[in-house]
Amino acid sequence: MAKPEVNDMIEHSEPTFDRVVTGKVTELLDSQFIYEVHKVVEKGREKIPADKTSTRMCMFDEIWSKI
Fold first, then answer.
1. In degrees rounded to 5, what are phi and psi of residue 30?
2. Where does the pLDDT of residue 48 fall: very low under 50, low under 70, confident under 90, or very high at 90 and above?
3. How far apart are CA 49 and CA 2, in angstroms?
4. How far apart are CA 8 and CA 54, in angstroms?
5. CB-based contacts of 46: which residues, under 8 Å, 6+ apart?
6. Residue 8's closest CA among 22, 18, 20?
7. Where on the phi/psi map is residue 9: left (φ > 0), alpha (ψ -120 to 50), or beta?
8. Percent with pLDDT over 70 in the chain
9. Residue 40 burial (CB count, 10 A)
């Protein structure tokens, strides 16, 4: 199972919600990582957070890739 490194830029795909989130990895845990959200594209609409305080989690076995 691939793992990102802290400070990697990643793209996290969530097909169930028709959403792709782009962000920067801030912390690695045993089976998941936490990332700072930079951009969200949901149902074709792009959303960029006004500040960089929004964080999300992603399991290592979910759909994600380094960018």
1. -60, -45
2. confident
3. 28
4. 17
5. 39, 40
6. 22
7. beta
8. 99
9. 19
- Name the residue with tokens 């994600």: 64
What are the structure tokens assigned to 56, written together? 């999300």
* Residue in the block written with tokens 């500040």: 51
Asked whether the predicted pLDDT for residue 52 surpasses 90, the reply is: no
Query: Smallest Cα–Cα separation from 7: which of 21, 20, 23, 19?
Result: 23
Q: Residues, the chain, total?
A: 67
- State the number of CA atoms in the 13 A half-sphere of 60 facing the CB: 11
What pTM did the predictor assign? 0.89
